[in-house]
Amino acid sequence: MSKYIDKFRQQRLGDRRWIEKYAVGELDFNDEDSQTQKRTDDTQDHWKAFHFVSFGSGSSGNCAFLGNENGGVLIDAGVDPDHVYHDLEANGIKLSSVKGILLTHDHADHIRYAYKIVRENKHMRIYCTPRLMGGLLRHHNVSRRIKDYQVSIFKEIPFFLAGMKITAFDTSHDAIDNMGFSFEAGGSNFVVATDMGIITERAAHYMQQARYLMIESNYDRNMLDNGKYPEYLKARVRSEKGHLDNKMAAEFVAQHLNEGLKWVFLCHLSNDNNTPEIALACMREMLESKGVTVGDGSFAAVERDKDLQVYALPRYDTSTWFILED
Question: 139-187, pLDDT tens digit by residue?
Fold first, then answer.
């Protein structure tokens, strides 16, 4: 790593120990930085498949695990930890191998149990931007001690964690410093993009590279328009800083298909303005209009050879435990 790059990162990130352990940028991959290159090579050599599970997806609580058989990370922390712990251990993942929590934004359904989890598992850290941590600290029911567990990350500056190269990117939502995440390991890419009213150019850049895409499909427009929500809340949901409807999600996936995309996970479905059946039908119809065969994600023999698997993550329950390998 050149002296210039090192000085720049130290000034921007402020903690050389964190820089040396986690930070990696496009200029770091050179002959002088054999340690960074070795970390990348080791990741590729030992990674067999992404292991993915959602413990709940919706306004009542969001939390997912992504990694492999050796461990990984939690994405958000809005689901009761006892439920999360039980289902991790039931699938052979020890809590000691979960390296931290990545937060997408500061709404309660994504951060409610973050401090409780790290307080009970002191090896874990919370990975978020300084601005997002500032948002957490403004919540009256969040302990100020949560700051002690933070590792600062920055959008579009990749870092390594649990064998994955992770890049946060900007998303459009009405919270503090919202972000999605791109995870790279073993030659594959898993992208998480939830809680966003529109798909921005930078979000689209990462989403288009996904082999596995977790995308918000929050509401059906007719159900929202004719539903019981007051008008101000309907306007908030429809806004550019609100949520994606089924059609917007389906149009994006259909219009930006790439040969590498194999799985689409629909997340954050509304309890009042959507159903899994409606969301899945919308996505299926849009994809089939492009000549794509769509599987239901069940791993049944008749579904296995379809071009693309589409699965709606349960709102309150744990999803299938997915082992995503080519």
Answer: 988 899 999 999 999 999 999 999 999 999 999 999 999 999 999 999 9
Cβ atoms of residues 191 and 181 within 8 Å:
yes
Q: What is the pLDDT of residues 12-51, one digit of tens each?
A: 343 434 333 444 333 333 333 323 333 443 444 478 899 9
Rounded Cα–Cα distance for residues 40 and 49 (Å)? 16
| DSSP state at residue 154 | B
Would you tell me how many other CB atoms lie within 10 Å of the CB of residue 275?
A: 15
What CA–CA distance (Å, rounded) separates 36 from 23?
A: 9
Q: What is the pLDDT of residues 232-278, one digit of tens each?
A: 999 999 999 999 999 999 999 999 988 899 999 999 999 999 999 99
Q: Find out whether 237 and 229 touch, Cβ atoms under 8 Å.
A: yes
* Domains contained in the chain, CATH given: 47-324 (3.60.15.10)
7 CB-side CA count, 13 A = 3
**Contacts for 218 with CB less than 8 Å, ≥ 6 apart:** 237, 243, 244, 245, 246, 268, 269, 270, 273, 274
Q: What digits encode the pLDDT tens for the residues 285-310?
A: 999 999 999 999 998 888 988 999 99
> Which positions ≥6 away from 259 have C-beta within 8 Å?
none
Answer for the pair 264, 283: CB distance below 8 angstroms, yes or no.
yes
Q: Is 173:197 a contact under the CB 8 Å cutoff?
A: yes
d(CA 5, CA 87): 42
pLDDT at 326: 67
Q: Which phi and psi (to 5°) does residue 312 adopt?
A: -95, 120
